Amino acid sequence: MGCHRLGCAWLHPRSDRFPHPVSMKSVVFSGCRAQLHAPADGTFHHLVVLCNAFGGEGLYAQRALGVLAEDLAAAGMAALHLDYPGQGDSVDLAADDDATEAWLAGVRAALGWARSHFPGVALSLCGHRLGALLAAEVAATEPDVQALLMLSPPQSGRHLVRELQLTAQPADQGDGCFLYGWWLSKATLAGLQSLELSVVSRRPSLAVRALSESGIRALVKLGQAHVAAGGCEFEVFEMPDLAGLRAEPHLVEAAENSFAHGVQWLAQWGSKASVLGLMAAPALPMSTELKLPEGLESGHRFGPDEAYFGVLCRPRQALPEQACVLILNTGGNPRSGHHRLGVALARALASAGIASLRMDASGIGDSLPVVRGRSLALYSQACPADVGHALDWLTGQGWARPVVFGLCSGAYLGLHAAAHETRMGGLVMVNPQSFLWEGPIFGSETPAEGGAPAEVEIQRLDHYWRVVFTGRFWRRLWRAEVAVAGVLRQVGKALWFRCAAALQARLPASWALAPRAAKVQAHFEALAQRHLPLLLVYADTDPGLNELQACFGPGGRRLLRNPAASVHLVPGADHTFTAAADSENLIQIVRQFVMARLA
Fold it and tell me: Measured in whole angstroms, how far is the alpha carbon of residue 241 from the centre of its chain?
C-alpha cells in the first residue's frame, strides 16, 4: 500500500496524443443505456465499466468521464460508460424506489452484459464519487473483476449522505429530499448510508487504486488495513486536478494527470487476458433500443462523419400528423438535461403521440469533437449548424418541420438557427439570457474573464420599483449604504434603453438609435414574416426578462404584435425549472404549444 501526491508536473498529456476516432456505440441492457467506447479497430482484451457520480455531480462530470472513456479506448481497452436506472437516458424509477439498489443492479447488469457479449475479456470497474462506492460494493462480490479505480471516493456512504443533505431540500411529505431537482427517497438515503469502501477487504485478490484531490488520510488507513489483511494492492494518490470535475459543465476540464495515471494502471491488469473482444462480432447481438411505457428510445449517430449523437423517442401510438420536437442542450449539460428535464419532456411528449430527438451539440455529451478543456463555444456563430444537421437527419427519417425546443443557451441556439432554417415548424425558447451575443464566446473564457451578452444587466424598471417600497432599502439609504448615484445611473440607463428600443421599432433600420435593439427586432421581424410559431417561456423572476423588456417593452408587448408569437410567465420557477411542479408545468406548456400548432 502506498500514498503519493502527484501534482501537475507528473504528466500533462496533449489533447491530441491519441488518434481519433475511436469506435463508439450506444447499447441498452436491463433498462440501462450506456456508451461503449472501443479502440478504432474494434478489438480489445480488457473492458472497464465507468460508474458516474449522482445528480448534478454526475451531470457536470459526464463530459470529462467521456474523455476518460476515449483515453481508455485509445490505449487499447474498451469502456462502457453507464447511465444508472433513473439517471441519464435509462429507465425512470418510481419516487419511492430504493434507487441505491437499482444503481447497484445497473452496475452488475453492465458486467453481465460484458460477460455475455465478450466472454473471457478482462473486466474492471472505475467509479467517480458515488460511482466509486457503488463500484466497490459490486467489485467485492464479483470474483472476475480484476481492478477497481476510484476517483474522488467519499469516505463512506454516510459521509456522502451528510454532504448531499447540506444542500438538499426536504420533501413536504418528509420521506426523502430533493437535490437540485434530483429526488432521493428515504429508502435511497438508507441504502446510500449502508455503502462502505471497506467491503473491498472481502476480495483480497482485488487490485484497488484511489485517486482523490484532498482528504486522503482516511483512504490511506483503509488501504493499510486492506493490505494488512492480505489484500493484493491498495494504493492512494493525491491528484489535485480531480477538483476540476466539480465545475459547471461548460467549465469542466478533463483531469489529465489523473486520467493518464488511471489509464496506465488499468492497462496493466488487462494485459494478461488471452481472449480478444471484437466489436464487429460480439457473442450476442447488441441492442440499442430501450422499451418504455411511453414508447421506444434508440440512440443514433448522424451528421458529417457521424459526429453528432442523439436519442430518438418514438411514441407507441404516433399522431397522424407525424409531429416531432428537437430538444437542444442547455449550456454544457448533456442531452438528458438538468435534473433530466430533456428526458422527462421527451417521454411526456411520447405519451401524447409526439416523437422527439434530444441531441448533443458539438463537443457536448457524446457528440464530437471530444473537448478536454474549457472550450465549449456555447454562443459561437458556428453552433446553429448543429441544428441544421439534426433537421437533415429528422427530415430523412420522415419528420418534416419539427418544433425546436431550447432552454437558456439552447434557446439562443434555436433562435439563431431559425434565421437560416426554413424547415422548423415552431420554436420554443425557455429563459433565454440574450437574443444577441456580442461578448466573448461563453464557455471558452478563462476563469478570470466571463462571457456575457453586450449591454447586459439592464435591470427591469419594476425591479427598482419593488426595491423602493421595501424597508430594507430605506434603512440602507439612511445608513448611507446605497450608492444613490449608481442606482440613478442604472435607472437612467434602463429608461434610455427602453425608450430608445421603443423608438427604434418605429424608425427605419438605417436609423441606429439603439443598434442592439434594432438587430434583435429585425431578427424577430424576419421570423414574423415567415409566420414561424414562436413561444417564449420565462420564470417570472428570470434575468433574461431584462432583455425581453429592453427590446420589446414590458412583457414583450411589441413582440406580441406578431400573432404567431406568445410569451408565457411561470410564477415562482427558477432558471432551470428545478422543482417537480415547475418542470411538469413547463412540459404541459410545451405540449400544448405543439398540439396547437398541429391543430
Answer: 21
Reduce the DSSP state of residue 505 to 3 states and report it.
coil
> Does residue 17 fall inside a structural domain?
yes
Are 215 and 186 within one domain?
A: yes
Closest CA to 160 of 75, 53, 81, 247: 53
Phi and psi for 359 in degrees, rounded to 5? Answer: -115, 160
Q: Please, which residues bridge with residue 369 across strands?
A: none
Give me the number of domains the chain comprises: 2
Residue 201 and residue 210: Cα distance in Å, rounded? 14
Is 31 within the bounds of a domain?
A: yes
Instruction: Give residue 350's Cα distance to chain centre.
Output: 21
Amino acid at 493: K
Q: Is residue 493 part of a domain?
A: no
Domain that holds residue 171: 3-278
Q: Which residue has the cell 439562443?
A: 412
| Domain closes at, from 278, 306, 322 | 278
Q: What CATH number is given to the structural domain containing 363?
A: 3.40.50.1820
Task: Answer whether 402's CB lies under 8 Å from 429's CB.
Answer: no
The dihedral through the CA atoms of 378, 380, 382, 384 has a sign that is: positive
Same domain membership, residue 231 and residue 348:
no
Distances (CA, A) of 247 to 56, 332, 551, 576: 10, 11, 33, 17
Which grid cell sits at 424?
Answer: 422548423
How does strand 534-539 pair with strand 308-315? unpaired
Residue 80 neighbours by CB under 8 Å, 6+ apart:
27, 34, 35, 36, 37, 47, 48, 49, 50, 110, 113, 114
What's the DSSP call for residue 6? -
The whole-model pTM stands at: 0.87
Per-residue confidence of the chain (599 residues) as pLDDT tens digits? Answer: 555 544 332 233 333 333 446 889 999 999 999 999 999 999 999 999 999 999 889 999 999 999 999 999 999 999 999 999 999 999 999 988 999 999 999 999 999 999 999 999 999 999 999 999 999 999 999 999 999 999 999 999 999 999 888 877 776 655 788 887 888 999 999 999 999 999 999 999 999 999 999 878 889 998 998 888 888 899 999 999 999 998 888 788 899 999 999 999 999 987 666 688 999 999 999 999 999 999 999 999 999 999 999 999 999 999 888 899 999 999 889 999 999 999 999 999 999 999 999 999 998 999 998 888 775 567 777 788 999 999 999 999 999 999 999 999 999 999 999 999 999 999 999 999 989 886 554 444 443 333 333 333 444 555 555 555 566 766 776 677 666 666 666 666 666 555 655 565 555 555 545 677 788 988 999 999 999 999 999 999 898 998 898 888 888 888 999 999 999 999 999 999 999 999 999 999 999 999 998 87
CA distance 594 to 596: 5
Q: Is 346 found in the same domain as 239?
A: no
Q: Identify whether residues 248 and 299 lie together within a single domain.
A: no
**Which of 255, 278, 301 is the last residue before a domain boundary?**
278
Q: Would you give the DSSP letter of residue 371?
A: P
| 555 in the same domain as 431 | yes
Q: Which helix (H) or strand (E) holds 288?
A: none
| Residues 256 and 365 both lie in one domain | no
Are 127 and 257 found together in one domain?
A: yes
Examine the domain organization and report whether 270 and 312 are in the same domain: no
Flag whether 413 is in a domain. yes
